[in-house]
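Quick one: structure for this chain?
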Amino acid sequence: MSERDRDPAGRAHNARPRDAFGRPLARGAAGVERVDESLVLSPAESIEYAQRFLDEDKPFHAHEVLEAAWKSAPDGERDLWQGLAQIAVGLTHRQRQNGKGAVTLLRRGTDRLQPYALTSPHHLRVAGIIADMSALAADIERDGTDTGPDRALVLLDPARPEGGG
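Got it. Here's what it folds into:
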């Protein structure tokens, strides 16, 4: 049995290379560039960085950014960031043609976002995300991963103030 990669604080992490869909590759294989696991950004920077990956159809990479935000978030926001990260993983499962995993993670993420739907922290369009991703989960459950309308994950409310964070 191989030793698991650990950071200096002893927390497990995975340094294995990954393919474009986030699937682990054999050690030493050439993978795609990864997001640094020790990334610490402001909420606005995290949202902007994750949205760029989502716009490029790279939800696994967006997940890594959102997971870093979750790990560094104050206690009152951890469920928000974890829910967003879970939704990004759900979109990753959809790309991988794993409908069951996609539906499970999309629902788990939207459930975790529910308490934030009325306050929409950091100008996130929480209620819209919940509605869009719940509908996508229902589409995948009904039609599979290849059918149904493509719903992009848009994180910010388009009516947010300029530079809004």
